[in-house]
Amino acid sequence: MKVTEKQLKARCTDLNLGPLKDTAFGLKIERTSRGYTCSLVYRDSTPPEILIADASASEADACISGVATTSTVYKAIQGTIKPEFVPQEVFVKQHGERCPKCGSRDINPGHITSAKGELEQWHTCGRCATAWHNLYRLTGYELPVVMEDGAAS
Ligand SMILES: [Zn+2]
To answer: What is the 104 CA–ligand 1 centroid distance (Å)?
Structure first.
């Protein structure tokens, strides 16, 4: 059965809106004078990665199937899949000093609200304009160190 350009593009669209929706990249198919080119295009400034070039329609179709149904391609590009936001543990390791989205240190702390031993501080990123709350939890209390003369430091 012959695969048409329209069908290939439709499969790409289905993937981009489906399984690839939450990844940092999408699949793009282009028809050139020498055949089809399948590439991964990134939502950030990472340059596109060509998976197959000058392919026939059925080769291009197989390539799309590869992305859709096997883990091979996923594994090959694993290192380049970037989640949109850093995991919580990473954010904590960075001491909340970086934007959870773009990693910038250009962040603007805002108002603090407290409730039942937890604090929330509003932050915005000066680079990508993401807004978020840093969450703080009460961990205990500490008495001030008392000096010899009785004054608290
Ligand atoms: Zn940011």
So the answer is: 5
What 8-state DSSP symbol labels residue 94? T
Residues 6 or more apart whose CB falls under 8 angstroms from that of 5 comprise: 31, 36, 57
Q: What is the pLDDT of residues 107-150, one digit of tens each?
A: 999 999 998 889 999 999 999 999 999 999 999 999 998 877 76
Strands, sheet with 107-115, edge to edge from the N-terminal-most edge strand: 107-115, 118-125, 131-137
The answer to whether residues 130 and 107 touch, using CB atoms and an 8 Å cutoff, is no
pLDDT digits (tens, 9 = 90+) for 47-75: 888 888 999 999 899 888 877 765 444 54
Which is nearest to 41 in space by CA: 51, 33, 31? Answer: 51
| Among 131, 28, 17, CA closest to 85 | 131
110 CA → ligand 1 middle, Å: 15
How far apart CA 88 and CA 133 sit, in angstroms, is 12
Ligand 1 centre to CA of 128 (Å) is 4
